[in-house]
TrEMBL record:
Any coiled-coil regions, as ranges: none
Gfo/Idh/MocA-like oxidoreductase N-terminal domain ranges (all copies): 7-123
Keyword Oxidoreductase found: yes
Record-stated family: Belongs to the Gfo/Idh/MocA family.
SUPFAM superfamilies assigned: Glyceraldehyde-3-phosphate dehydrogenase-like, C-terminal domain, NAD(P)-binding Rossmann-fold domains
Entry GO MF terms: nucleotide binding; oxidoreductase activity
Residues annotated as transmembrane: none
Name of the protein in its database record: Glucose--fructose oxidoreductase
Superkingdom to which the source organism belongs: Bacteria
GFO/IDH/MocA-like oxidoreductase domain mapped to chain residues: 134-251
Lineage, broadest ranks: Bacteria, Pseudomonadati, Pseudomonadota, Gammaproteobacteria, Legionellales
Pfam families: GFO_IDH_MocA, GFO_IDH_MocA_C3
Native source organism of the sequence: Aquicella siphonis
Length: 344
């Protein structure tokens, strides 16, 4: 059983690992204890910069260190499955970068390993732990917008030359954010923790590297709730999110997937009286520290998952992303009954 402070090990030394290192140091119940890199020099430099007591010239050594309680997997997408399975086998709790893995079958394999070894595991969709998300859930479940008829989301960023090209693409790297938020809020609208689409159809643009650069997705949920999502990884930053209900609409002014401490606002427009209300949500800590705190707290409590991003939620998300990618790769859509079978 872990004790305060929970000791963290980091795999990978890129910019996102540096962000996580800072967040771990900001968490009062966590300690940044070890880092692993493929190169001793890189590990040493990273450890020096972030004041980390242990550094290793191989990722596995972090898993072999008995002092490490939780491992943050900050490796490229195509390596997530392997390292989730390895972490679980080593008895380490896990925070794995998004996308959790790159295929639904790999998600099942990884989660089965986590289950078998009884470790905590969470996908690092960090925005889920920010107070803005609780506020959005509260608004949707209060029915102030009436019956939800449409979610409309766009997430674009020019990251194609920055992101690892192996198993990359707009859908996995960016589409995971709006898809996960819509599934969450479609659930809130129905008094559930999440909802899965009954039908999915999509179109997209695939590059010569076979990664998708742009994809648009239509989802149909229970009660005729529709959702439209567009993600692109070679177009300038654009983050839009709106919810259309029968009594009112809600539109994010700030980026819902990168909330900060102060500027997290949305506007609710009430159709009947024409009233417009602006709501701003502030946060006490940085976005990534909320996530680290959530993981450490659950590990201390002996929990195997965090309901801000549960395992079932990760599986549902992966199912949509996988279907979206497959439809775009084929240039066709599977028959409805095939989708229903895959979601079941
Ligand atoms: N949550 C967020 O805000 C956010 C932002 C950006 C990225 N991400 C996610 O973070 C993950 C890493 O993304 P990234 O762009 O940082 O990837 P990356 O730079 O390609 O790789 C991350 C680290 O993994 C190690 N690595 C790279 N290639 C490897 C290989 N072939 N075999 C073993 N280790 C390898 C490297 O560390 P060493 O050389 O030290 O071993 C590298 O620094 C992705 O899953 C991405 O989706 C999340």
């Amino acid at each position: 059983m872990a004790r305060v402070p929970v000791k963290w090990g980091i795999l990978g030394t890129s910019m996102i690992s540096a962000t996580m290192a800072k967040a771990i140091r900001e968490s009062s119940i966590s300690e940044l204890y070890a880092v692993g890199s493929r190169s001793l020099k890189t590990a040493m430099d990273f450890a020096h910069t972030h004041n980390i007591p242990r550094h290793y010239s191989c990722h596995q050594d972090v898993l072999d260190d008995p002092e490490v309680d939780v491992v943050y997997i900050g490796l490229p997408n195509h390596l997530h499955k392997e390292w989730i399975v390895r972490c679980a086998a080593s008895g380490k709790h896990i925070l794995c970068e998004k996308p959790f893995v790159t295929r639904i079958d790999d998600a099942r394999t990884a989660l089965a390993a986590v289950q078998t070894h009884g470790v905590f595991c969470m996908e690092a969709l960090m925005y889920r732990c920010h107070p803005l998300i609780n506020k959005l859930k509260e608004v949707v479940s209060s029915h102030v917008l009436g019956k939800i008829t449409l979610f409309n989301a766009v997430y674009m960023a020019d990251i194609v030359d920055l992101a690892n090209p192996v198993e990359g693409g707009a859908i996995l790297n960016l589409g995971c954010y709006p898809v996960s938020l819509i599934r969450l809020l479609a659930g809130s609208a129905q008094g559930k923790s999440m909802a899965e689409p009954l039908e999915i159809t999509s179109l997209g643009r695939v590059s010569t590297t076979r990664n998708d650069n742009q994809g648009s997705l239509l989802m149909k949920f229970e009660n005729d709730m529709l959702a439209m999502v567009t993600a692109a990884d070679d177009i300038s930053m654009c983050a839009r999110f709106e919810i259309i209900g029968t009594k009112g609409s809600l539109r994010l002014i700030s980026n819902p997937w990168l909330p900060d401490r102060t500027e997290n606002s949305f506007i609710i427009h009430h159709y009947q009286n024409g009233e417009t209300v602006k709501i701003n949500v502030t946060a006490e800590r940085s976005l990534y520290t909320y996530q680290i705190d959530a993981v450490s707290r659950h590990v201390l409590d002996g929990a195997d998952q965090c309901m801000s991003m549960s395992r079932q939620d990760t599986l549902g998300n992966m199912m949509v992303l996988d279907t979206w990618r497959q439809q775009i790769a084929r240039g066709t859509q599977p028959a409805d009954n095939q989708i229903m079978e895959r979601i079941a």
